[in-house]
Amino acid sequence: MAELATGETFPALLEINARLRGSRPAIREKDLGIWQTWTWRQVRDEVRVMASGLAALGLARGDKVVIIGDNRPQLYWAMVAAQALGAVPVPVYQDAAASEMQFVLDHAEARFAVVEDQEQVDKLLEIRPRCPRLEAIVYRDPRGLRHYTQPFLHSLAAIDAMGREHQKEHPEFYDEEAGKAKGSDAAIILYTSGTTGQPKGVVLSFDNIVKIARMSAELEGLSEKDETLSYLPMAWVGDNMFSLGQTYVTGFCINCPESSATVMQDLREIGPTYFFAPPPIFQNILTQVLIRIEDASWIKRRLFHYFMKVARRVGSDILTKKPVPVGQRFLYWLGNLLVFGPLKNTLGFSRMRLVYTAGEAIGPDIFNFFRSIGVPMKQLYGQTEATVFVTVQPNDQVRLDTVGVPCPGVELKLDQTGEVLYRSPGVFKEYYKNPQATAETKTADGWVHTGDAGILDRDGHLKIVDRAKDVGRLENGALFAPKYLENKLKFFPAIKEAVTFGADREFATAMISINLEAVGSWAEKRNLAYTSYSELAQKPEVYDLIKAAVEQVNRDIAQDKDLAGSQIKRFLLLHKELDADDGELTRTRKVRRRFVAEKYADIIAALYGGKDSVHVEAKVSFEDGRSGTLKADLKIADAAVSEAQAPRALAA
Amino acid sequence: MSEAHRRRIGDVVLKVDNISLRFGGVRAITGVSFEIRKGEIFSIIGPNGAGKTSMLNVINGFYHPQEGTITWKGMPRKQMRPHEAAATGIARTFQNVALFKGMSTLDNLMTGRLLKQKGNFITDALYWGPAQREDIRQREVVEKIIDFLEIQAIRKVPVGRLPYGLQKRVELGRALAMEPELLLLDEPMAGMNVEEKEDMSRFILDVNDEFGTTIALIEHDMGVVMDISDRVVVLDYGRKIAEGTPDVVRANPDVIKAYLGVSH
Fold first, then answer.
1. Chain A: nearest CA to B151, how far in angstroms?
2. What is the mean pLDDT of chain B?
3. A295 at B interface, C-beta within 8 A
4. What percent of chain A has pLDDT over 90?
5. Cβ-Cβ contacts under 8 Å, B148 against chain A
6. CATH number of the domain that residue B212 is part of
7. How far is the C-alpha of A89 from the C-alpha of A114, rounded, in Å?
8. What would the mean pLDDT of A557-581 be, rounded to a whole number?
């Protein structure tokens, strides 16, 4: 395996990489239709010039520099150039509105900004009167900025020219400054989006990023031969880990897409070996594949469906090198030749050997599809405050419903409420200028509260079940994680939304709204006539369909000793879909739990009251703004509860 | 429009002097005169059948007027062929998109470079030496336009598969590939939705700003015309009824009459 670089800070690592693999590609960007490459030596020279230019502009130790734009080599260099001078880069989400940027600029006390183009310059000019500390704005792309005459605007080309001048006058300057950086210094401040209240600035040190990068590179065997696509926002901790931390430690090459619209094409052209994407991206890819297959000629369609059946049967086992019968192995080989191979090639997945997904629960369809065609996808669990890595699934223990085991060097524990706590070399320094929040999140001995509730299964795998504040207990003390149950229910195509109840109750119940499209076409195939959503939902056949799903979920969670007590005993199907217009969902389609509990208090009482049905009269808002009343009798059904899993010795 | 922009408008580059165009007994254009100055965005507006497209066709030499002269870059002329117009720096787009539907965006744009391409039969046939270098040089120009118009994602897509708004953008790109001094746009925003219109307006302003290209355009959408034009000429039944800045034209009673009709 190729050597990992051993420096403590990014400027130091850059020098080492320039020496160790100076002529290897460090970063590429597609420009004018061609992938332009910079070697490690070239990157070092660029960073030196840029740092000198920024110094000439007045950037000094301790200053903050906001970085705003798509993933561009120059913006990555600007981060390291700032670090070399002892300044701290603060990347900001490029699609943030000017007012959101204002908070970050103000809070971070940024003196300088390095941005991509006119769009970002315009936003900064808008908020500049309210950000008096902002002294200079440097832009990469001069397009459309010709007539901007503000003296504090500088093109990156001009800064580089200043830098070369500065280098001539002060040849020792860069090395002296860069040499002062220590591993414990603040390397970067990342503002977390913050669903409640103002964003918090997470301060990470060089030690945080570099140690975690080195740990993860060793864990996954990353080396200079790997390639990745840097397409996720620079302001997100993940991109800092993948496109800065790991590339500076291992020396692998990162690739910047031509534009956000071309990411899928760029992915195909680069064919990365290492890739990260949150579940919605994989979902999009899968949907597009399925749509295009439906449009393909019948012979391709038949081949695809036939071999996908083979893949679902044995693909995952072949990926993890488990024994598979020779006949099946041969069929899979044939399928790879005819279907999976070309498909992976079209998607740019041919060379993938490490694929991470994280951020939310991934649907079994998506997960199984990619794994079965030989994409080695696995899940990790991380946080900005942990410098990404908390747990990762080992290659031979990839599962759908866990996020893996703690990474080397990471200690993990659950407190009495079920909240996940961890301690690791990646634990952040502090929230910038917010000691109170720091103290609330990080204990004196370095443990960090994640705010997530989890359970550890028999093999030591962590399962994230819900946000800790939403998790409750049944009357008998069993753990009740509503979102975990609801996610499991929603993975069934027939179920659109589900709301579960159980905290401080005798048992768990669920209110389910069916998916009209999926259940409608299911009903059509069975010649079930219906006139409306509410009528379809009350068909006994549909109740049976959903009952099977609920019982499947019960069987699944019965495997889990902590959750087995919260199996769903009774459920009903709602007469309407939960709707943001009725206030039941947020605009991002999250259930507003408290509101729903109040609005449907009658139904909940009936679920626990032992009745067979409940009469509802509900106000509904129609799309044209009128509202009306809907009357219906909703049946309540019982679901069978599975026995909690027998001890392991018997099961095996 | 900014002051900086106004200051860049130079001398007259195209002078249309007393042009009349007849098709048999039909008078398409009668005695129309106006001047287009270097670096400006000049709009020709008017109700249906006012002679706007005919006027563009006269300017780029597709129609030959029976009377009047056109002075292009100081050279007065009565007749000019479209290819001569193209060779001397006039490019245009069409009301109905006129791209090569089966060819990719990139290839369509490359056709815009044909007039600028140097080469000889032998090296071109062998695609060797100078021919290859020439091709790379032309591709670079085209790639800059692709970047400028933000159409990287459709570089290799056959244009027939693109939505209408994007086809219009590709057509603008092909005209730009000729590096024209005068760009004629025939209803660049016809049939577009609001967002596509906004995009196109921005590109027209950017082209004018970035390359200093003089632009003459025909457009129905009055809002767009008034927003982006430096000067406007109004035609009605083949005659010029008004000329001036958008504000002046908007206030002109004849224009209001031509557009809204008049109660008797």
1. 9
2. 88
3. no
4. 68
5. 143
6. 3.40.50.300
7. 10
8. 87
